[in-house]
Automatic annotation (TrEMBL):
Occurrences of domain Adenylosuccinate lyase PurB C-terminal (ranges): 366-486
Protein name listed in UniProt: Adenylosuccinate lyase
Gene3D superfamilies given in the database record: Fumarase/aspartase (C-terminal domain), Fumarase/aspartase (Central domain), Fumarase/aspartase (N-terminal domain)
Fumarate lyase N-terminal domain location: 37-345
Pfam families, A to Z: ASL_C, Lyase_1
InterPro entries the UniProt entry points to: Fumarase/histidase_N, Fumarate_lyase_CS, Fumarate_lyase_fam, Fumarate_lyase_N, L-Aspartase-like, Pur_lyase, PurB_bact, PurB_C
Function noted in UniProt: Catalyzes two reactions in de novo purine nucleotide biosynthesis. Catalyzes the breakdown of 5-aminoimidazole- (N-succinylocarboxamide) ribotide (SAICAR or 2-[5-amino-1-(5-phospho-beta-D-ribosyl)imidazole-4-carboxamido]succinate) to 5-aminoimidazole-4-carboxamide ribotide (AICAR or 5-amino-1-(5-phospho-beta-D-ribosyl)imidazole-4-carboxamide) and fumarate, and of adenylosuccinate (ADS or N(6)-(1,2-dicarboxyethyl)-AMP) to adenosine monophosphate (AMP) and fumarate.
Species assigned in the record: Promicromonospora sukumoe
Domain of life, per lineage: Bacteria
Enzyme Commission number: 4.3.2.2
GO BP term, pick one: 'de novo' IMP biosynthetic process
Keywords: Lyase, Purine biosynthesis
Amino acid sequence: MPETTAPAASPADSAGAVTRVALAEVSPAIALGPLDGRYRKAVAPLVDHLSEAALNRERIHVEVEWLITLCNGAEGVEAPVVPGAPTLSQQEVDYLRAIPATFGADEIAELAEIERETVHDVKAVEYFIKRRIAAAPETLGETSLPAASELVHFACTSEDINNLSYALMVRGAVRDVWLPAATAVVDQLAGMAREHAAAPLLSRTHGQPATPSTLGKELAVLAHRLRRQLRRVEGAEFLGKLNGATGTYGAHVVAVPTADWPAVSKAFVEGLGLDWNPLTTQIESHDWQAEVYSDVARFNRILHNLATDVWTYISLGFFTQIPVAGATGSSTMPHKVNPIRFENAEANLEISCSLLDTLSATLVTSRLQRDLTDSTTQRNIGPAFGHSLLAIDNVARGLDRLAVNETLLREDLDANWEVLGEPVQSAMRAASVAGVPGMENPYERLKDLTRGQRVDGARMREFVAGLGLPDDVAARLAALTPATYTGLAEQLVKDYLD
């Protein structure tokens, strides 16, 4: 057999022989995803609402408020709801409400330790609260709280706690974080629309020169569309239920047949600031979530439209980008100022919409009275809003670094006099109806003059002068330029944007 030699070690083989640091074991922990790593600063406000710790804090909050309701009643509900339950003093109520209020790093670790034993997250919350109740005498002295310990999680299934917790979480994220950021960027856009309401802009339909508008009017269209979606999100319902394992109040009625449990449930849910859902299976149906996520996704898609339009205006030179001192546009082309804010926004909006669409589509379905697909799905609400919030931040930063190149806008208009073919043929039609002779085939005559060819100002005026239009009409058309042919664009911004 012919002799053979072992191949030389490749760079890959050599590199493979070196033991690498296990990044998964580095402390502090390295984030797997960009929202908790590279982009943490932009999305950090959502952690208070949509993180795992926020979910557990809301679970504690709901359990505590349910305990208080069972002991002290609620609006329109006599106390106690459960006969024999102690009436809690204000000091005791304050002690209970301090449990979620002071839920921080040490408590998060303690709850995680309990959950490792229970292998059940909601049960771990119950035990966590009971620990605090057992320790209440150390803080309060003589107290009736330990006597109420078994009312923690009374007659509840896990979903009674979870659905209310998620409703509170999403409501907080939407109202306290996402809506303010989204409203601010739309207001920023509207301000630009007003500022440039009179700046003439050559429109492009199908990418081709078309009837001029103004830059402000085109920005106002997007601001108007975005504000409509904001109004829908602002009007969202956040539903909740507390009615037991299959929505029948079965355990409630057997344990305490004298209570009006639907009334208690309604008062409790509405006391949390949520809308009560009276008819459910084991789970609250999540239809309201699908509605909110669809509206946010629609806002995202309109914002995506803004990002692509601004990107295109930048590529045409209509917008120039104000360079950031010290920033690098390209690793090899030093002249470049890339529209990265709008490109990053596009990508994040697409990821957000994908997640929101999945949430909307899957959460409205549950097999028979319950399956757990919603549990896993809802843990991705945070990333869905996170990518949207990151995109909003990028768009706001991008808009803030734009300047209008008015010289190029004028040059672009002056190079496309053929767009006046529309008003000239329309004036000919009106004159024909008024009985002016020689106005036959106006569209066809303008088509022969302008289709597929450039027409300058002199050629257009020459054509108009030879039509035999009434003097006032001819004078009006002779004075018209592409830059002045903007119709009511400026007035539309002033009258309808706000």
